[in-house]
Design goal:
The structure holds two protein chains of two kinds. By secondary structure, chain A is mostly helical. Chain A has eight helices and one strand; from the N terminus they run ααααααααβ. Chain B has a domain of 345 residues: FAD/NAD(P)-binding domain (3-Layer(bba) Sandwich), CATH 3.50.50. Helices cover 22% and strands 22% of the residues of chain B. Chain B has ten helices and 22 strands. Classes of the chains: A mainly alpha, B alpha/beta.
Chain lengths: 185, 558
């Protein structure tokens, strides 16, 4: 038995890209659309990607546990921007990156990605205090992206925090003193 | 399906109600065909995200906004990649409403229906719930009372397992309980203060279909406190068709289950006043056939059952066989839902939670239990829980990261579910100008909340904040969202039970007045909706109807 979708997919192959729109939509019929889990749709230029990585690491740096880069946060952010964000969201992030880069060039003669950690911290602080164009909206959104990406990553869930995959029991008065890393939710 | 196949009964839908119908009818000796429009999901093996942390779920379990808006708009942002496989694609399966009166119709896409993703709160309705319509002169009187249903509550509770605490409250009858999930230390603190400050009001354990003791005879283990229920639970720790009723029905050897099969209408013989079979469409091939049966249990979920009933009509008519008195489609209800309050509980910072419960605590209805001067009828209950999250420091960098290694204060939040009244002009109908991919006219909603519902939401918001403030919480906030009917996913009514065949669709045993071999046992039967969650009542009513149906069949009346 050949199902309708396979049959139409064959039709698409015959007509190539010029398929009449309703036919194309029917061929694409999927009861459960697939979410992109492969490489993110490219959103950033190489320079922007480098800046996102460097700045995310300053938001959640490597300490006694891995930081944002090791946790895959930059890739997560590009995923969010490519597959999740609407245009206004992208404008907030891309605009903020441009403002930070411009300030970095003016103050340090290098793009933000090449600035020192202390200089990057200074740039993020300017954004946080809304002393750059679009600074605070960028900082708020970017910080949220880094935090949500980090604490949903394997590093965040299993190293930075204590993951109980199958707690088995519940104790609603468990001594905090026995908690070495707070529990992943 | 071979033309020689004959079934004693066809069950349309395999969710909470359909699964119970299949279990009861097969166990009583009937050969049953159960159909579901959704794809097959086998217990355990088809739960792809069971036990998976966020990083093993596509997109860290965040739904792309554009996809949610385009394909899953009825869920209004609540669908996630882990639950998406269980929900229907709204774009490909449209329904109809007038733009200002939006209805968010949440539909599953799988065998098991919403039993895989439901909230699992399980309550008996009270005697007052079945009496309120008559006492207040609202809607139509129920043909049954609490005592008619009570033994069937007990019957289903013993089988599925309901956790909770005995309270002896006349307005919230106890179930046959397994031990409750315990309150945490902050909830115990709140209970003591709230009940002292507000005599007569209670804060009690959640009542859940999550079991706290093993049921080895059903291959089910007690809840493991993972709080991932809607991913599907291989432990079978909460009630679902897959974990509970489907294995029982299959064990009889008398069940035939067909997934990917849409029921478009029942076939009807107006001379004999009997349904004769069901028209089924194979979702994969589009092929239609009529499968005969001696009786039909319509358990497609309230509004899908309305769709089937409204579309069961003579070939040359737009009027359903079951619409002779004009009641069919009338009195559609949901619960009020979009009211929430929260606040901070001081102290107890040396204690935290270990494990993740599937539910917390409940503030049962306290309004209009006795004569009160309130601007609205009926009442609402609050579901909530206390919890601690990571501290929320500001800024960025190593200081922030390490500060997030501490817990913040105890917080408590709760949300209200309230009873909506039945209004005849809150209704569904067919739109013959728009058809779905199987050629069936779309179901069209004309449902709005009225003055009573709005005033109840106002009161719930005010009282919720008052209770938390007076109990000693700080930073108490509350909000009332724009509530689109359907969002509580407790849509009910449309084929109400009644004493009078002139104003109702079903009799007191869920039989259609116009066809005694047609039983409708899902939410569409409701003449009113209580303020508590309805699924346990669907189960009890379905088991009761199945018992009656088989007795009637054996007596030669069907």
């Amino acid at each position: 038995m050949i199902d309708r979708r396979e049959a139409l997919a064959g039709v698409v192959a015959v007509f190539g890209a010029n398929l009449f729109a309703p036919l194309a939509r029917a061929a694409a019929y999927q009861p459960n659309p697939v979410i992109n889990t492969g490489p993110p749709a490219p959103v950033f230029t190489a320079a922007q990607r480098a800046a996102v990585a460097a700045l995310s690491e300053r938001v959640l740096p490597t300490t006694d546990t891995p930081g944002a880069i090791a946790a895959g946060v930059p890739e997560y952010i590009e995923h969010m921007m490519g597959d999740w964000a609407v245009d206004d969201d992208r404008a907030t992030i891309l605009g903020g990156l441009a403002a930070i880069d411009a300030r970095s060039m003016a103050d340090y003669k290098v793009p933000a990605a090449k600035a020192t950690a202390a200089q990057q911290d200074a740039l993020l602080t300017l954004a946080m205090n809304d002393q750059l164009t679009g600074g605070l909206p960028f900082f708020t959104a970017f910080r949220q992206l880094v935090i949500s990406g980090y604490y949903t990553s394997e590093v965040g869930i299993t190293q930075e925090r204590h993951y109980l995959p199958v707690p088995g029991d519940y104790d609603g008065a468990y001594p905090y003193s026995k908690v070495k890393r707070i529990f992943s939710s | 399906m071979a033309a020689t196949d004959r079934f004693d009964a066809i069950v349309i839908g395999s969710g909470v109600s359909g699964g119970w119908a299949a279990k009861e009818l097969t166990e009583k000796g009937l050969r049953v065909l159960m159909v579901d429009r959704g794809r097959m999901v086998e217990h355990g093996e088809d739960y792809p995200f069971d036990g998976k942390p966020a990083y093993e779920i596509p997109a860290r379990d965040k739904m792309p906004a554009a996809l949610a808006k385009r394909d899953y708009f009825a869920l209004n942002g609540w669908v996630s990649p882990a639950t998406q496989p269980f929900f229907i694609n709204d774009r490909l399966n449209p329904y109809d409403y007038d733009a200002p009166n939006k209805f968010n119709w949440v539909r599953p896409s799988v065998v098991g229906g919403k039993s895989l993703t439901w909230g699992r709160w399980s309550f008996r309705w009270s005697p007052a719930d079945f009496e309120a319509n008559k006492r207040e002169g609202v809607g139509t009187d129920w043909p049954i009372r609490y005592d008619d249903v009570a033994p069937w509550y007990e019957y289903v509770e013993r089988y599925i397992g309901v956790s909770g605490g005995k309270e002896n409250l006349p307005y919230l009858p106890d179930s046959e309980f397994m031990p409750p999930f315990p309150m945490n230390v902050a909830e115990v603190w709140l209970k003591e203060r709230l009940e002292r400050e507000f005599p007569g009001r209670k804060l009690i354990n959640a009542r859940l279909s999550n079991i706290t003791e093993d049921k080895p005879e059903q291959n089910r283990s007690r809840c493991q406190k993972r709080a991932q229920c809607s991913h599907g639970c291989s432990f079978g720790a909460y009630f679902s068709t897959q974990a509970v009723t489907l294995p029982a029905a299959r064990a009889t050897g008398r069940l035939t289950l067909r997934s990917d099969t849409w029921a478009t209408n029942v076939e009807y013989d107006p001379q004999r006043k009997r349904v004769t079979g069901v028209r089924l469409v194979d979702a994969k091939t589009g092929r239609a056939e009529v499968v005969p049966a001696r009786m039909v249990f319509l358990c497609a979920s309230a509004m899908s059952s309305m769709h089937v009933l409204l579309n069961s009509r003579p070939a040359d008519s737009q009027r359903s066989w079951f619409h002779s008195n004009g009641a069919l489609g009338s009195g559609v209800m949901d619960h009020i839902f979009r009211v929430g309050v929260s606040g901070e509980i001081p102290g107890m910072t040396d204690l935290v939670e270990f494990g993740r419960r599937p539910g917390g605590v409940y503030v049962p209805r306290f309004r209009n239990l006795v004569a009160e001067e309130l601007p609205f009828k009926r009442g609402y209950g609050y579901q909530g829980q206390a919890f601690r999250q990571a501290a929320a420091p500001e800024g960025f960098g190593a200081g922030m990261k390490h500060a997030m290694r501490e817990y913040g204060p105890w917080r408590f939040s709760m949300g209200a579910f309230g009873e909506c009244l039945p209004y005849d002009d809150n209704r569904v109908m067919l739109n013959f100008d728009k058809k779905d991919r199987f050629g069936t006219p779309l179901l069209r909603f004309d449902v709005t909340f009225r003055d009573n519902e709005i005033k109840m939401m106002d009161d719930a918001l005010e009282q919720g904040q008052l209770m938390l403030r007076q109990a000693g919480l700080t930073n108490v906030t509350g909000g009332r969202g724009a509530h689109v009917p359907g969002e509580a996913i407790h849509e009910m009514g449309g084929a109400r039970m009644g004493r009078d065949p002139g104003t109702s669709v079903l009799n007191g045993f869920n039989q259609a007045h116009d066809a005694p071999n047609l039983f409708v046992t899902d939410g569409s039967q409701m003449a009113s909706v209580s303020c508590v969650n309805p699924s346990l009542t669907f189960m009890a009513m379905t088991a009761r109807a199945a018992d009656h149906a088989v007795k009637q069949m054996k007596a030669g009346m069907i």
